[in-house]
Amino acid sequence: MAWTLQEARAHLEAWLTADLKLATGQEYWIGNRKLSRADASEVKERITFWRAEVARLSNAARIRRTYRIVPRDV
Fold it and tell me: 5, 61 in Cβ contact below 8 A?
């Protein structure tokens, strides 16, 4: 799937927010129901993935290639 740099940044921001919320507690109780947040290792993997995507897309936007062409008579 292809995404834009802005979309990749939004995903990275969302996963970083999830990581902050995960730090406040992974499990909690509401009445007699136990709720669990996402697995910390999964959040870490997604942050690593989206950081790499943001870096890749940022570098792709900056790279400008110059080609030298030498015409030759044949």
Answer: yes
Count CB atoms within 10 A of the CB of residue 28.
11
Q: In 39-70, which positions are buried (b, 16+ CB within 10 angstroms) versus exposed (e)?
A: eeeebeebbeebeebbeebeeeeeeeeeeeee
Measure the CA–CA gap between 28 and 2, rounded to whole angstroms.
37
Q: Would you say the pTM of this structure is higher than 0.90?
A: no
| Distance (Å, whole) CA 20 – CA 47 | 12
- pLDDT 10s digits, 26-41: 777 778 887 777 788 8
Q: What 8-state DSSP symbol labels residue 26?
A: S
- pLDDT for 6 equals 94
